[in-house]
Design a protein that fits this description.
Order of helices and strands: EHEEEEHHEHEHEEEHHHHHHHHHH
Distance between the termini: 26 Å
Helix content: 40-55%
Radius of gyration: 21 Å
Strand content: 5-15%
Number of strands: 10
Structural class: alpha/beta
Amino acid sequence: MASASAPAHPLPAAAPRVVAFIAYPQMGLLDLSGAQTVFWAASKALSQRGLPGYQLLTASLDGGLVRTAEGLSVDTRPLAGLDLAAVDTLVVPGAPDIGETLDSHGELAAWLNQAAPSVCRVASVCSGAFLLAKAGLLDGCRTATHWALCDTLQLRFPALQVDTDAIFIQQGAIWTSAGVTAGIDLALALVEADCGREVSMQAARELVVYLKRPGGQAQYSTLLQLQTQDSPAFDDLHRWLAENLGDPELTVEHLAEQAKMSLRNFSRVYKERTGRTPAKAIELFRLEAAKRLLESSPRNIGQIASVCGFADEERLRTTFQRHLSISPRDYRSRFSREG
């Protein structure tokens, strides 16, 4: 995932940036509205500074009402009426059933293929990555999507490099995000790239206050994801792990002992059943615990590193940068509920 502390594309003096959201039948409503609300909040922050904000458009192949997966309909304009020369960003939401319906979206994928070179950047939310892949825009790119669809996306489009951990990823002019609410994190990063960190953080704080969003959560809870897989034999182990993260000496050997398995057999079976190595599981559990404390605890960062089992504050910082491309301090500044 990428982040920028200064504007990558400074706003024109007297013109808003145009962000066009691409709608299609059975898309996810929150995939669309979550990101739109970020740009709305950013426009509000920019207006307070006397600066132009964002102009948000929603378009579909034929225009008119488009019914979302949740049953609500969104009013759209026809794609043919878009002035692509004036569009800065195209955003493609995902759909819950995209894996089954992707072949029906050939016309939309062809339009995306033709339109992408005419705009500054293209972004997908959640399973919208499938449409970008079908349009041929993701070949050779690291790509994020909903955790439950990572394997499907990789199998269907082997030229991609699907990242199962990233909340969002920038690859040049192409941005992809993980599941549903990760589209909010993606949109905040786009705002930061355009307008700087201060505007992005003001938008984030407004979302936390008015949308009641706990802020910056990964696309899924590690424990929840592991419980949804064929790993009931490790449920007790995961609960034990969550309760013992603060032990800096915690090792894979300790997990194997707790699971009453040999180290070699445990490592093999755990990877087969959860899709992750035991060492990666320890790291992700610690990362989640640190994120929760940064959001809700007054403890300083060094104390949080210790409580979560990181060897020191630098190890915590390195883990945050590797997984989230943000420092613990910036994460707290953006998402803390203590301030």
